[in-house]
Design goal:
mainly alpha; 80 residues; flat; 3 helices; single chain
Length: 80
Amino acid sequence: MVPSRRPWTLVNWLFWASLLLYPFFQFLVNMISSGSSLTLADFILVFFVASMGVRWMIGVTEIYKGSAYGNIDSKHKQSD
């Protein structure tokens, strides 16, 4: 038996996404409409660096990069 999906997870996600993304998009529109190319280039650079930082942090936690401590295969290789 598979229980039906509850909409509360989606409602929760939509609430937080709208609460957090609305000010971001408002800031972005103000940045674009300001017309300052240096400020816009700085914003794009900061956004790019933050995006690369998040990707790096996700990559550090990949499961294949974990240790082999306790694995039976690694114990066999060490004893050979």
